[in-house]
Amino acid sequence: MPLEVIYVVRHGFRTAWSVDHKTGVYSSSVRSPTGIAADPPLTSHGTQQAAELASHLITLRPAIDAVYSSPYYRCLQTITPYAELAGRDTLIRPEHGIAEWFGAAPFDHPQPADAETLKGMFPAYDMDYVSTRQASRRGETLPQLYKRVAATVQALIAKADAKGHRAIVLCSHAAVVIALGRILTRDIPDEPDRVDFKAFTCGLSTYRRRGGDDDAWDCELNSDCSFLTHGEERGWNFSGDESFPGTGSMSQDDSKL
Asked: Would 130 be classed as within a structural domain?
């Protein structure tokens, strides 16, 4: 049976981090459990959002057959309550192909913590899973982001088709959430800042396979937050390529997210 539905969620409300775009030095307002400045945890509000998201995800039909998450702490922290609620030895597959987007830069961006560290923090972390793609340590242009996300989702769809999964869930970051919507529906705009696919914290987007030769997907829910007590929060949009160097900044503080 081929894959029917892809559920996409953004991580919950998190603490802030920022980067000096001239030096490439990252800093954060709250120390991350992994010790990586660009790998912040959720706030207490974010953990509440994650709990509400889990309660909602468990009710979805078709039910979720496989869980994929960006390997950054905030995404694993967001999807873990669902994995715990689902039980049945539910595993979280750490997929680097849906990891955070950093703009192209002349320096290395921070990477997620190693698998052993994350397994110690998140028991459902699948140590045996091998990611389909890896993001460049020097960041990516917007076209490169689209290319990474497209290759990743195509590979995940193929995996699901082979295993007979009806539905999968992907937990990721705002830029990837929007890129996924554009790629799945095959509607990539000429202007990246076009407001189309939304990315609220813990918002749920649902894509259903259209079928036919083009194998496109229809968006049935666009970052739905109706199940969250406080509804839509911390929306995000592309503001251009966001590449270094020059005047671009990859600040991820509260003023932007």
From this structure: yes
Peptide bond into 41 cis (omega under 30): no
Task: Check: pTM over 0.70? Answer yes or no.
Answer: yes
Q: Determine the distance from the C-alpha atom of residue 52 to the mean position of all C-alpha atoms in its chain, rounded to a whole number.
A: 18
Virtual torsion, Cα 221, 122, 50, 136, nearest 10 deg:
-50
pLDDT digits (tens, 9 = 90+) for 7-64: 999 999 999 888 887 788 888 888 899 999 889 999 999 999 999 999 999 999 999 9
Residue 248 CB neighbour total at 10 angstroms? 16
In angstroms, the CA 246 to CA 229 distance is 41
Q: How far is Cα 105 from Cα 143, in angstroms, rounded to an integer?
A: 15
Angle, nearest 10°, between helix axes 44-57 and 73-86? 40
For the chain, how many structural domains are there in total?
Answer: 1
Per the CB < 8 A criterion, the answer to whether 209 and 2 are in contact is yes
| 137 located within any domain | yes
